[in-house]
Amino acid sequence: MTNNNPFNLIPLIPTGRNETDNVNLYSPDDMITIYEQQFLTEVPDDKLTEFLPALKAFYDIDDNTLDISAVIFDAIGDAAIIYNHKIKVGDYQLLGELVKESILEETEEQSKDQANNDSNDAQAFTIDCLRTFYINDIQIPYHFNLFIQGDGYSTLTEKNTVLEKLYWFVHDGFDEHLLGNPDDVISLESINAELNKLGIREMDLTTVHAVVNYIEDHIVDDAMADALNEKIDAAE
Q1: What is this structure's pTM?
Q2: How many CB atoms lie under 10 A from the CB of residue 108?
Q3: In Å, how far from its chain's centre is CA 48?
Q4: Which of 118, 121, 215, 108 is nearest to 161 (CA)?
Q5: Using one digit for the tens of pLDDT, what is the confidence trace for 151-178?
Q6: Which one of 58, 96, 182, 213 is least enclosed by Cβ atoms within 10 Å?
Q7: Between the CA of residue 134 and those of 57, 142, 219, 223, what are the distances in Å?
Q8: Is 123 exposed, middle or buried (0-12, 13-18, 19+ CB in 10 A)?
Q9: Contact at 8 Å (CB) between 100 and 236?
Q10: Least confident of 111-115, 130-134, 183-187
Q11: What is the DSSP letter of 120?
């Protein structure tokens, strides 16, 4: 008996046919599902050339449908596809209260500039934070200490969860990996071992760097910034 769904694609109900009656039409949410499956479906190496034709046949769609699904995903999707992984930003938590930090001005010129700055940009604060991310719908926490001064901020990331280790793997220098304590060194192999335990596909170096870029771009969103600004206003 012929298997019409050898890649275990998600069955979807079309909304109808296009004007020329040659392909199915689907709702925007289902188009996103089709788009995601292009990249997230695990396909054996010897079946790679068979996958895309099988996907189009299963849903009765064409290349134009796939192009439209990509546009819809970019327009209304709440995640990003990074190679064979879907990553999504979740909620944030402020785990403590703001702590005022003393900043020593390094030069006389900087002191003069600060004296003429009415916005009190020299006042610095730190606060313990947690941001949740999802990789292939698996929740992973990302714990960091946030340093805020004026309009700028920086983060000091923990080194416990696999996402935190991804960050340090990318940002630790070569000497750190080469000369550090072997028990503390984070390797791509150790990261992939942790990902496997979570049921997440392995990552190559390109994927790791892209995921870390995504984390850094989304670690502080507008809602979190507004909450932090309220706390800073109250503290000042």
Answers
A1: 0.83
A2: 8
A3: 26
A4: 215
A5: 889 999 999 999 999 999 998 854 455 5
A6: 182
A7: 30, 10, 13, 18
A8: middle
A9: no
A10: 111-115
A11: -
